[in-house]
Design brief:
CATH class of chain B: Mainly Alpha
Largest sheet of chain A: 4 strands, parallel
Order of helices and strands of chain B: HHHHHHHHHHH
Strand content of chain A: 5-15%
Number of helices of chain B: 11
Number of strands of chain A: 7
Structural class of chain A: mainly alpha
Strand order of the largest sheet of chain A: 2-1-3-4
Number of domains of chain A: 3
Helix content of chain B: over 70%
Number of domains of chain B: 1
CATH topology of chain B: Fumarate Reductase Cytochrome B subunit
CATH architecture of the largest domain in chain A: 3-Layer(aba) Sandwich
Shape of chain B: globular
Chains: A mainly alpha, B mainly alpha, C alpha+beta
Oligomer: heterotrimer
Shape of chain A: globular
Chain lengths: ~450, ~220, ~140
């Protein structure tokens, strides 16, 4: 079994690979390998002992009855291994397979790092493969559309500037019925908090902005959102391999906050955006860390609970389980804070097994869900283990503080008929917090 | 035969050690140079405490998720490496050579223990071979380089054991053992066995990224 | 099927090794056998080195050059023309290395092996002298 035995038709992958020549492929591959890759790739390629210990790390591999072509090392072998073996002289068909594998069969979740005695970062290798694919112009249609949106609008969802402000004002309007005097303060200079979200929030999860505004009102936060581009902290370009564009996006995000002279950025419940801001995009821009402090919502909520600022009317009575998003758990170590916040909110938490930083991925992150409908089946079949894991807890509610995880889990829950609902922490806080009594 | 044996244990041994040490220093040096030139930013995240923490953790059998979930290869890997280092240093015959050549002595293990540990290593190598052939995960990604590395790593132990048992007239096996050992030394910087040189670096890097930047364990 | 074949191979490999291990049965020492078995180095880890004094010296043309092995001296300096037949090596070369004295075991190894190497004759590998067939 190899990726070429399970090719899925994607119009953009098809169009782009049809126009490739062997020389062009070789030249692009080698320009990336020589120009951008360095000691890490060299050491990883040389010292991987092919022990196969990483196979049980990957949800794709486990979910496909340990099919070796889905193991982390098996996937590296079919992409970067192939490149190195053939010195970059791949056929267009092989490039198609390499792109399909890199974009849809690896979530860059880095669970395999916990399995590798050498310490090989498979996520980095697959990212480098994606970088090559991007430079060859071979990216799946749907995710490339989001990347185009990023370059045209500086947000992921083709949200126009006036639509953005309209959406905020609409949510403010709605929320003022429930919370008299509530504001979504735009462009407030010197605010404590610059609240940034991903573009899917204004596009189709607008209630999340409503909820965030309600929570900010509840805790009396001094916060603001920008009315101009830079409000979207998401970053599909990081995942397509368009690092130049990733840099522009992160710069616009940081600069929007800097222009307003805020104390810090609080990010909505999104995982990949946090990765992009915390240790990928910032580095591309030359920041060792960040120009201003950045906190993920989980950490912000944790602070609010610790300071006693959130007053609850009660706890969520049904048992819940916690899904650990890779980008804020393996990416930021927020597993304890996530649990403390969840325990504040819920009377019973039943842990998945394995859990915390060893939890299985949602199979949606890393841009995989963004590759769209053609590849939905890849995610569903590739994460049977998550369905088993969820089913084994016996709960009917899963807390997942990440948009991609939400999308991925919802699809899995539906496909495997688990009858579980997914919740953001913000959903629970909004649901349970004391609200003004209205006549 | 005597002359060739003397050549193998004399000039050839010096050459092997020179290639091993020189090659290792060169490989590590050039890898660090490459990192400085191409990935200097990533070096800045290196954190010694986190690197050491992770290295120690991964040296504990069954101390990490990867070791726990792969018990048989974990057992074989630890037995192989521990016995390798013990035998390399504490085999009585090896100590005699140090003492003969340089005049210093140190405690050794009994010969019967050395023989037993050698059999353990050979057993581990048989397991590696068996696993490489039968485990679909491993077979899928096995290349000639992996067989070469395994062969080079196994040969000194088989020949060493046979030499210790005076197989044939003893000399031929001792000679082969010496040659295989030298081959392994020479191969370390230039084959998959270079993981001996680079593993501490790759481990240290990922441990720093996970520990110091992302505040999470890498095991 | 494959699995069974490889298992069988591995097993037979181990058996073969076990046979070799137990293989060479000790043979009783011959009447004229002479071995170097200094008391100071007992208990020995290896069989005592085979050394048939007269036969060796005849082969090596050392009949009248006793001093090559039976040398003498003090403080790390050899005295020319002074021999030491009859004095056990261990009298001067202590087991532990002295300040200016080669340790006993090392003295034996160097004396024999260095000469064998220099002349290009005589064994220099372990079992060439410490022969398990003659314990």
């Amino acid at each position: 079994m190899s990726i070429l035995d399970r090719k899925i038709e994607d119009p953009e992958l098809k169009r782009a690979t049809e126009g490739l020549s062997a020389d062009r492929i070789e030249q692009v591959i080698n320009s990336v390998l020589q120009g951008e890759a360095g000691a890490r790739l060299k050491a990883y390629a040389e010292t991987c002992m092919r022990c196969g210990m990483c196979a049980p790390a990957c949800h794709y591999c486990v979910s496909h009855d340990m099919d070796p072509s889905y193991s982390p090392v098996g996937k590296v072998e079919q992409t970067m291994g192939l490149i190195l073996r053939k010195h970059g002289r791949l056929t267009p068909d092989e490039v198609y397979g390499m792109a399909q594998l890199a974009y849809t069969e690896c979530n860059l979740c880095r669970r395999c790092v916990h399995y590798c005695p050498i310490g090989i970062d498979t996520g980095y290798i697959i990212s480098t493969v994606r970088r090559i694919c991007h430079k060859l112009g071979v990216t799946p249609l749907y995710i490339q559309d989001t990347a185009h949106s990023h370059s045209a609008t500086m947000n992921q969802m083709w949200v126009k500037e006036d639509e953005w402000v309209d959406s905020l004002q609409w949510q403010e309007d709605e929320a003022r019925d429930e919370f008299p005097g509530l504001r979504i303060p735009l462009d407030v200079e010197g605010a404590d908090i610059f609240y940034s979200v991903i573009a899917p929030e204004p596009k189709f999860r607008t209630q999340l902005i409503y909820q965030a505004a309600a929570i900010m009102k509840h805790v009396g936060a001094d916060w603001t959102m920008p009315s101009t581009p830079g409000w979207d902290n998401s970053d599909m370009c990081m995942f397509t391999g368009d690092f130049e564009m990733m840099g522009r996006l992160k710069r616009s995000h940081f600069e929007a906050a800097q222009k307003l002279k805020v104390r810090r950025i609080v990010m909505g419940e999104c995982g990949h955006a946090f990765r992009s801001v915390y240790d990928v995009g910032n580095r591309w821009l030359g920041w060792k860390n960040h120009p201003i402090p950045i906190v993920h919502s989980v950490e912000y909520f944790w602070e609010l609970f610790n300071e006693g600022k959130i007053k609850l009317t009660g706890k969520y009575e049904e048992p819940v389980t916690i899904h650990d998003p890779c980008n804020i758990i393996r990416g930021r170590g927020l597993m304890d804070k996530l649990r403390e916040v969840t325990h504040h909110l819920c009377s019973e938490v039943i842990e998945m097994s394995p859990t915390r930083e060893h939890n299985y991925c949602c199979a949606a992150g890393g841009g995989v869900i963004n590759c769209g409908p053609p590849f939905k089946g890849v995610r569903l079949e590739g994460n049977r283990i998550k369905a088993d894991q969820l089913r084994a807890t016996g709960v009917k509610t899963v807390v997942a503080p990440c948009h991609n995880c939400h999308g991925g889990l919802e699809d899995i829950i539906h496909h495997y008929q688990l009858g579980i609902q997914t919740k953001f922490l913000g959903d629970l806080i909004y649901e349970l917090m004391e609200k003004p009594e209205l006549e | 035969m005597n002359a060739f044996y003397n050549f193998a244990t004399g000039p050839l041994a010096w050459a092997a050690f020179a290639v091993f040490i020189g090659g290792s220093v060169y490989r590590i040096w050039s890898m660090i140079q490459l990192a400085k030139q191409k990935e200097a930013a990533f070096i800045s995240y290196m954190s010694l405490p986190h690197a050491l923490r992770s290295i120690v953790r991964w040296l504990i059998p069954f101390g990490t998720l990867g070791w726990k979930e792969n018990p048989s290869i974990t057992l074989a890997t630890f037995l192989f490496h521990i016995c390798l280092f013990v035998l390399l240093i504490f085999t009585p015959a090896h100590e005699v050579l140090w003492s003969y050549a340089f005049g210093f002595t140190f405690p050794v293990i009994p010969e019967v223990l050395a023989d037993t540990l050698t059999l353990v290593v050979i057993g581990a190598c048989c397991f590696f071979v068996h696993r490489r052939l039968t485990n679909i995960q491993v077979r899928y990604v096995t290349t000639g380089k992996d067989w070469l590395a395994l062969g080079i790593a196994t040969a000194p132990f088989i020949t060493g054991f046979l030499a210790s048992q005076q197989f044939a007239d003893g000399q031929i096996m001792t000679l082969l053992h010496v040659l295989c050992g030298e081959a392994m030394l020479v191969a370390i910087p230039f084959t998959r066995l270079s993981h001996a040189l680079f593993q501490p670096l790759t481990r240290a890097y990922i441990a720093s990224e996970f520990g110091a930047v992302r505040h999470v364990q890498d095991w | 099927m494959k699995l069974r074949v490889h298992g069988l191979l591995a097993l037979s490999g181990l058996l073969l090794l076990a046979v070799f291990w137990l293989g060479p049965a000790p043979v009783s020492a011959q009447e004229d056998m002479v071995q170097l078995r200094p008391e100071a180095l007992q208990p020995a880890t290896r069989p005592a080195a085979l050394f048939k004094h007269d036969e060796h010296n005849e082969k090596a043309h050392l009949e009248d050059q006793c001093i090559v092995c039976h040398h003498s001296g003090a403080d790390g300096v050899l005295v020319a023309d002074e021999t030491s037949e009859g004095t056990p090596c261990a009298d001067c070369h202590t087991v532990e290395k002295g300040k200016k004295q080669t340790a006993l075991r090392q003295a034996y190894h160097r004396r024999c092996m260095n000469c064998h190497k220099a002349k290009g004759r005589g064994p220099t590998h372990c079992s060439g002298c410490h022969d398990k067939r003659h314990p």
